[in-house]
Amino acid sequence: MTDELSPRFAEDLVRARVEARLAEAGASEASRAAAIKAMIHASLVGVDSHGVRLTGHYCKMLGGGRLNKNPQLKVESRGAGSAMVHGDDGLGHYAAYRAVEVGIELARQAGVGAVGIKHSSHLGAAGAYALAGAEQGFVTFATTNTDSMVALYDGAQKFHGTNPLAFAAPVPNARPWLLDMATSSIPLNRVLLHRSLDKALPEGVAATADGEPTTDPHEADMLLPLGGVDYGYKGAALAGVATLFSALLTGTTLDPDFIPMYGGDDISTPRNMGHFVLVIDPDKFAGRAVFAAAIGSYLESLRGSRVRDGGRVMAPGDREWEEMDRRKAEGIPVDPDTVRFLGL
Questions:
Q1: Which own/partner contact pairs does 55-59 have at CB distance under 8 Å and 24+ positions apart?
Q2: What is the pLDDT along the chain (344 residues), one digit of tens a residue?
Q3: Distances from the Cα of 196 to the Cαs of 57, 172, 199, 232, 316, in angstroms?
Q4: pTM over 0.85
Q5: For the purposes of burial, counting CB atoms within 10 Å of the CB of 215, is it exposed (0-12), middle (13-18) or buried (19 or more)?
């Protein structure tokens, strides 16, 4: 999240400024609409590291030629419940949302729709795509691998990316159940955000170039896997799950082989990122009505369970929806660098 002292701006104003900057950079109407949708989602639910602060980066990559300004997506059927989407090296949000649509089409027929994505780029918050499927009544999983920036457990070099895993499910008469988690302790964009704010990092989430843990965002060279110094083997293994689905099944780029997202001189060569989306139709299993009743009962039991003194039990998504309501009412906080870029 951004610092509480960051200025806040109305959602419509932020959306309009992001739209203007991406249009100036030459992004096609369809691809920039997808990017805006995903970035605004992230900024509203409090995932500021993957929200509108990425506008400047995307504009730079569009200008440098790494991102295709007018991608023509292609869909290749691979089986009764599987397909591949070719992103044409455009904004990754565009290909990812299309993959969800394809997954839903497949799931309506086959029960499941597994869709790989190739020749894509950074897609922002993976939860945006899991949510897109859940909002249409489908259980949805979305993941991507990214360039190496996370040490292995007991490792002293970058190996996996932050490699998010996102799941969402429809809930009757309520917003979806939503889990969106990096397999690193924090995402790299959180380090960059802390640098922008000149704010110390939490303990046990980042390390220097020689593998020593640090809280200084300016000295942080790599991230630690989820679980930190003591239990990072869990996060490191989960990061491999993202690579399995996103790179190995799609035949795209492995984490250590990516052109770096930040810091390199080359901003013209496409990165051939892979993503993966899995869509499941409850009707083809126990049935939509049975699933709806079950998840409603499950969440009621979860939220009603006993808590320790001063504690609060929350289901995945509860915090995000509360933060969304708050930000819609009070405005989206924007970090100083992004305020300047967007002209807010």
A1: 55/18, 55/21, 55/22, 55/338, 55/341, 55/342, 56/21, 56/337, 56/338, 56/341, 57/261, 57/262, 58/22, 58/25, 58/27, 58/91, 58/122, 59/21, 59/22, 59/24, 59/25
A2: 455 678 999 999 999 999 999 999 999 999 999 999 999 999 999 999 899 999 999 999 999 999 999 999 999 999 999 999 999 999 999 999 999 999 999 999 999 999 999 999 999 999 999 999 999 999 999 999 999 999 999 888 999 999 999 999 999 999 999 999 999 998 777 888 888 889 999 998 999 998 888 999 999 999 999 998 888 999 999 999 999 999 999 999 999 999 999 888 899 999 999 999 999 999 999 999 999 999 999 999 999 999 999 999 999 999 999 999 999 999 999 999 999 999 99
A3: 14, 40, 8, 27, 29
A4: yes
A5: middle
At residue 109's C-alpha, the angle toward residues 107 and 112, to 5°, is: 30
Amino acid (one-letter) located at 181: M
* Residues paired with 193 in a beta bridge: none
Domains, the chain, in order of start with CATH, read 73-295 (3.30.1370.60)
